[in-house]
Amino acid sequence: MNMKHLKPGITLQLFVAVLATAVLGVVMMGFAARQSFDRGFIGYLNLQAVQRLDAAMPRLQQAYASRGGSWDFLRARPGAWFRLIEPDASTDGHSPWEGDAEELAPHLLGAGRRMTLLDEQRQRVIGYPTLYAHSEQRELVVDGKTVGWLVLAPIESVTDAAALRFRDEQFNATLTTGVLAVLMAAVIAWWVARRLLQPIRTVAQATKRLTTGEYDTRVDIDRADEVGQLAHDFNQLAHTLGRNERLRRNYMADISHELRTPLAVLRGELEAMEDGIHPNSPQAISMLLQEAQTLGQLVDDLHELAMADVGTQQHKPEPIDLAGLLHQQAQLFAHRCEARGLALQYQDSPPLWVQGDPARLRQVLHNLLDNALRYTHAPGTVQISLSQAGPWAQIRIEDSAPGVASELLPRLFERFFRVEASRSRHSGGSGLGLAICESLIRAHGGRIAASHSELGGLCVEVLLPLAPAQPLN
Fold this sequence. Notes:
Layout: H1 10-66, H2 78-85, E1 115-119, E2 124-127, E3 136-142, E4 145-152, H3 161-211, H4 226-274, H5 282-310, E5 318-321, H6 322-339, E6 342-346, E7 353-356, H7 358-374, E8 380-389, E9 392-400, H8 433-443, E10 447-452, E11 456-465
Helix pairs in contact: 1-3, 3-4, 4-5, 5-8, 6-7, 7-8
């Protein structure tokens, strides 16, 4: 038998834990209540006995004075003794110290049996035979003279039948209440266990389906507590996993598509050369080299993005003057713009310092300007500007027509995404340039976004956090 199936479920574990806690609490409270009751009850009985002791003193003093100043009338006469110390004892017309002990027995509540009468020499006259150091003692005084002592032995435990019956009734009531409390705790524990764990079980089942690739799995738990938050987080996780899976599939399809075209050209040309259809001319070799360079650029771009995904891009941050960096890139692209019939507009600005990797930021500017040149129709304009926007350095690269539809602007930084028609793969791009720019800017703590340009084309805005001003040399 598999021992794994013998393990109790979490519902049973929670039920047992809650019930055991409740039972332990009831037992401890019952024990404490019993101990407190016993001590309090014994204290109450002792207090009642002391009150009887105080009440008996005047009668004893009066009897002593009326009997000639001697305690002999009580020696060996328990009936008379009990009549004096028990105020409720019936005298039936007799003197309180007359009669037999037998007729007084039904009236005794226990206090009289623990009283002792001592004479002025502290010798026992009658009563309880044992004296304790912590006994209650009262001095008996007649005409200003000490004539004896009345002593009460304290109660150490309950022995009286009525008291025992009262105590047992209290114990039974406490026991009944404890049993009812345990039964109620069991019902509540079972309800709580099922109430708390049913939605968790639902999430667990949904998680199992999620592991099999069912990314459309959702759980419907409308609660405002931690379980509801768990359900919300699970649904968000399932949504993210589904989206990532779709992106992964699209990514792999795009990679294979991008690699297939130059590889097909290379293979076709090489087979044509091998079969003698195309001569092995410098023009053919140049075309093959161009296709190989396209493959190499694509592989480099993919490698760049892979490093960005795992956070292993190498950055060497240092203070950089963006104005100087933009000026260099503008000079590099000036001739290319002129060759394509485009006007490059750039005005030098005061130094703006940021903390970053010069090579990586230079790569960003190169990709953005190359993207603008590639997708702008001649005659057109490419405009570069640099300004300060609060704690940010703001770079704007704008171009003229054609533009990009508003619904496509958020997708420009997706990998392998191209706007069809004028901005197509025929312009030579791999669809990874803007995605690389986004990863590099994000690594520098900045932001990048695309919007419509007033020139009629696209405007790409880059924000980089400013560095402290650099001292003049």
